Amino acid sequence: DARVTQTPRHKVTEMGQEVTMRCQPILGHNTVFWYRQTMMQGLELLAYFRNRAPLDDSGMPKDRFSAEMPDATLATLKIQPSEPRDSAVYFCASGLRPLQFFGPGTRLTVL
Amino acid sequence: AQTVTQSQPEMSVQEAETVTLSCTYDTSESNYYLFWYKQPPSRQMILVIRQEAYKQQNATENRFSVNFQKAAKSFSLKISDSQLGDTAMYFCAFMKLRDDKIIFGKGTRLHILP
Fold this sequence. Notes:
The complex is a heterodimer of chains A (111) and B (114).
Chain A: E1 5-7, E2 10-13, E3 19-24, E4 31-38, E5 42-50, E6 53-56, E7 65-71, E8 74-79, E9 88-96, E10 99-102, E11 106-110
Parallel strand pairs in A: 2-11
Antiparallel strand pairs in A: 1-3, 3-8, 4-5, 4-9, 5-6, 7-8, 9-10, 9-11
Chain B: E1 3-5, E2 10-14, E3 19-21, E4 24-26, E5 32-39, E6 46-52, E7 60-61, E8 64-69, E9 74-79, E10 88-96, E11 103-104, E12 108-113
Parallel strand pairs in B: 2-12
Antiparallel strand pairs in B: 1-4, 3-9, 5-6, 5-10, 7-8, 8-9, 10-11, 10-12
């Protein structure tokens, strides 16, 4: 039963610290997405890749967020430095058009 | 730009009842995909059902069915014989035919009451 995995599942950190979230997409999928979910904003697309190439990161605060896909089995989302307003659930999804399959999410709390 | 609107922020129904969640969308595209995703308290996002706009027949998956009205740009989800496990946030979503990105509505929180 193939599924998207994300680590860590929970992260509590202090303001100013670096946070790295990792995602393993489903083998064979050619797209990977990073979303952020908050009560106020709902689900927001931060960035996405097709065949490991970044295609759209317009939803991402560029000064502190970065997304990479160093190989086909790993996508990363990094926040440096983290701020309390970054507290949210971060989802990774992978897919083959038109389907997207979501990971379980990383709940990030920045104190 | 495409938009997806879910006008019911929250709903409650008794177990075993039938419930319909509403969704409207705005697009100038003629072919596209529509989805309903479910997010239970575990927060896992689960694809419930998918509809291709070029298909006239409404999609069905077990107790879940849709009423797709293309001219009205309406895409409602019907849950028959609702179960406690259907308690979740439900998101309506849109994708252009040749795009990868999904546009999500704000969601409807559904409570199934025992």
